[in-house]
Amino acid sequence: MPSDERIDRAQEALAGVHSTFHSAVATAADQVRTYLESHRAPANGRAQRVATELGAFAAGRIDADRFSALFAEEDVPDAETLARLEAAADVLSATATAADFTADVPTGGDLRDVVAGALAELGRAFGAARVVEFARAGRYDPATHDEFLSTFPARMWNRAEREIAPPLVVTVDGADLRTGGLSEFLDGGQKIVLVVRGAAPPAPLVRLITPGVFVLQTADAADLAKLAAFSGPGIAALVDENAARFVHDPIAGRTTEARLSLLGLPAQAPNKPVGRVTVFQQTQELEQLRALSATQAQAPDGEAAKPAMTMPGDKLAAWLIRQANLS
């Protein structure tokens, strides 16, 4: 993982969210370990404990083996089931103690695929819990459930699991900041922070604004506290000063205008592609941000940002319309 102070700041901001996930996984691991320990005791071990508990009076009068069998569980897990529970406990313990809540998109890589892979790895804890459930109920199907311990993608998480979703901090080049595919992960309590390297499109997160999702684009890591405090799904991007800065807070009002605060716009209109994001796409994202906002932000030089941007293609279209005498 590349060294970047902003990664540490993001991790610190999400510490409370991380704690919720960690606590749930650690508790599940302890419960499975306790179950395993209580069911590994051999029959003669149970008999010895019963004999001790009955005391001297029972010696020679009560068969401890037969007596303990009366109170033995009707469903004693077989060796195969115990092995599956042990494997599940290992995954839960590893996730609780050594899980990595960061991911890096290599230059030219796909942001959506990296996020999906990282969440599938962390989701193994949820898969392990399912393995325990199915194994104890006698409904374990190796063809279906063996894979749960190696990968458990976010699309398979249930509602309760999505509510305690593990937070994720992702480093990515601005040229690879194509965010549209991330919408599928923004559910439950999922929090994602994108730490952006280098120049980026001016408003890439605008495509993710929906009524119930917290969306933040900022140059100040201190703003991430707002994301962490929000109880629902949210995403933030730490960008440079040349990108738009805004926050969409679902609890701020009923309308998009009330929920969206536009804090700053680029001083200049996009004039060249950023990676695979074309000038047209960048301009459309900025125009969408303006359309969703009821206020006009101030440009860095203190002058009011222009309400619209005219691109060479717009001028050509206007000229063609005039030549054709169309209204």
Explain this structure to me?
With 327 residues, this protein is α/β, with parallel strands linked by helices. It has a domain at 199-327. The chain is 44% helix and 11% strand. The protein has a seven-stranded mixed sheet, with helices on both faces. Helix 2 runs antiparallel to helix 5 (79-98) and helix 3 (43-54) packs across helix 4. It is elongated and about 70 Å long. The N and C termini lie far apart (56 Å).
- The assembly state of the depicted protein chains is single chain
Strand content: 5-15%
Low-confidence stretches: 67-74, 296-322
Could you give a short account of the major beta sheet?
A: 7 strands, mixed
Continuous helix count: 13
For the biggest β-sheet, the strand order reads 1-2-3-5-4-6-7
Order of helices and strands: HHHHHEHHHHEEEHEEHEHH
Mean of all residue-level pLDDT scores: 85
Task: Give the radius of gyration.
Answer: 28 Å
Q: How far do the termini sit from each other? A: 56 Å
Structural class: alpha/beta
Q: Number of DSSP strands?
A: 7
Shape assignment:
elongated
Helix % is: 40-55%
What descriptors fit this protein?
single chain, 327 residues, alpha/beta, 7 strands
Brief summary:
With 327 residues, the chain is of the alpha/beta class. The chain is built from 13 helices and 7 strands.
Q: Mind sketching the topology for me?
A:
Elements: H1 5-13, H2 15-40, H3 43-54, H4 64-70, H5 79-98, E1 102-104, H6 111-122, H7 124-137, H8 142-145, H9 159-163, E2 168-173, E3 191-197, E4 214-218, H10 224-229, E5 234-238, E6 245-248, H11 256-259, E7 260-264, H12 279-292, H13 312-323
